[in-house]
């Protein structure tokens, strides 16, 4: 049908199918700022304005929008078609989002801005609650909403013409020494009711730097705030086919017959592939360095299906609708097999999930026992430690399967280029692993594959999987045409990866004085149908959680720690990498156990943990026992800021006044210490909890990052990195570090990541390694360039020595004060004298993995009548070494705490007795929205990690670890009842309360 759409004031006459959505029409017209909407508007990233009101373009037919004014993000600020010319600049909302650090991956940003614009046009002076309500229809998995809310309030003030706020002095005051006393010196926010900037207790080393340590604006922020076509699917290619996958309806079955003839006969269908059409190449989908530390147990297509959602056939067709129709025409005869759905039944079961002859074992995997990995780590003598204890505490805990839930789904476009090389444009965390791993699967040499990673709309480990690139690639090979494959939200739930659920048994020996004499954890981990990341995720559960508590006194020198795990196959969707990588599964049982022990023995919970926690200068107890894929080597932990984190965090949350204070718990006491005049119902109680955690920084002796830097004619530099910015800001922090070495502002570093044809190798974004590993590579490349710049400057200034030349403010400055500019050096070296391209390439592998540490605090309100838990406040004090960019780093902490909050109280993937997923969208699977958030506060306690040139450790994963146990501990504090399985739902709390009153569990 022919319709006319008026978009941003421009009329477009289009021919569209009657069922076509407004989203499809807008994207077809090139308005790429409106994003994925295959979910009835549940994520909200498809928000546009219709006559000034926010609507979901994916939930509206194109025809319904005819005759209305449609506004997309492209209507705001500078327009792409206006090219380089500076016009009116950014809209105040766009500017505020850029300046406040409200953008991480940026996928939800256009929708948030449009929703905010609609609010401000109605209400120019909104309250924080009104802003939260207005943007609550747009899910953000990255930010925790704090900075977007600040951005909207800041823009509102600017639009109203209020006295401009000095944003830098109010919110960001880094680079000057901070008082490190526990009493927070941060001024109360005058913009929102919550803390608006992290406190940073800086190290002396970081106080002289020009860009490192500063809240630099993200290098990709402007294009993201404008909704420019930066993501994988924002790509137009003539003749593009659409791929769909037929998924198994059975949890365990053999494909006896499959007939695709009717589907192939459908006009517009270009290819249908079944297991009969593809060579059987066994591989692992885990995006890890070679050799992959896990079994090879997957095929692109197999004649056996192992979970509801497993692949049965691939289709490519001219439209998505035709591809869907073709799926329904494929005839499949299954022989249904009995599934294993409970991890406890896997090892002893006669049912074998993997009986294919091509299966390749890794380490102790054993498909005959449905065992993907088997871990036995003994440090010291645990039995002797138990024998020396005065008390032994044993308990069992359970942690759930949860979804990464990045708002941009998995998406990939493949095509043959003009040299007959296969281009894979994909939303991946691991472009170089994609290229290496796909080569044998596709039957192509590595050199005939090019992988391009555009901007990524969040990954959180879900895109550390080489999950679906083969689907589009096989179809491009079969059809010779470009193919796009984009997961639906339902596919994300039934066919992508998730966090390993575990059943965990703890046993701990403690002396009367509170010394831990031995600590043991056994984890039964469920990898689902395939063993991707099975060994390494579960190994980290022990490695990074059980290492924190070594005991005190003599035990500190020779701790007794045991970590055993069995990682079993079941007929459920495979687990994989998820931010935190096994460690949140360890800290729920470990820290809950610590809390119970301290309460049972009458110790202060903070003192008990600190008494037994590892100190700087001590060996990482697991460093001689286990490593991810390489031989373990002894490693000393040099920086532990845990005690300072505790001091800062307990002051910020006012722990000393609240913990153990029955008046406060019962609501007879206000925040400022006065008797409360408002009586809460007696069923409402407050509680406060703490958890202490450590993570790791990169994988020693294994993962490598590379960087190259070249100088341009104007003295700017191209920084090319294989590292993968998922929205974390890694391009920005790498540019900051290189800029610091070269003495130029960040705007002179043009950072590009990543393309396997052009950027150096990098293992990709995982294991909290980018700032540390890829950052060191960038610093080393910058040092090579800086050396050549100094040599050239010495030649131009006719100096005998170049070593004393300083690089700063875009100048090379001699000790006598004379200088040449970077631009002069560049022109001289490229065009005039002894011509050369100044450039440097470097790579880095770390021999150590220095752990970051954190103290996590939570304050909750619990209704003991209903079991309803409201998390009121989360405070996290983190030692992540030196903070390169407090703007991006605090965003990481806020977003991580928010994801972890879902893990604590509401997120869970469940299955019925046939293995069908119960949660398949963002309706049943609840993510926190802007108007449901607790107050968030981040405090950075810097230490200077000596193994990194700028003293950094990791920040990305540690916020996942402590929220759930801190919330569990706070609930215990409030009502005296324990819930040992997270998420802590009202039903579980209510049952725990009932068991208290009845004594029955
Ligand atoms: S910044 Fe909101 S989803 Fe990534």
Largest sheet: spatial strand order: 9-11-7-18-15-16-17
Ions and ligands: FE2/S2 (inorganic) cluster
Q: Estimate percent helicity.
A: 25-40%
Mean pLDDT: 92
Portion in strands: 15-25%
Brief write-up:
The chain is of the alpha+beta class and 1001 residues long. Helix 21 links the parallel strand 24 and strand 25. The structure holds FE2/S2 (inorganic) cluster (FES).
What does this entry look like structurally?
The protein is α+β, with helices and mostly antiparallel strands. Helix content is 27%, strand content 20%. It is built from 26 helices and 32 strands. The strands form seven sheets. It has a seven-stranded mixed β-sheet, with helices on both faces. Strands 2-1-5-3-4 form a five-stranded mixed β-sheet, with helices on both faces. Strands 6-32-31-30-22 form a five-stranded mixed β-sheet, sandwiched between helices. Strand 31, helix 24 (886-905) and strand 32 (935-941) form a beta-alpha-beta unit. Helix 2 (92-100) packs across helix 5 and helix 21 (730-742) runs parallel beside helix 22. The longest helix has 28 residues, at 770-797. The radius of gyration is 28 Å and the shape is globular. The model is unreliable at 168-179 and 181-196 (pLDDT under 50). Bound molecules: FE2/S2 (inorganic) cluster (FES). Residues 103-108, 140-143, 407, 458, 727 line the site of FE2/S2 (inorganic) cluster.
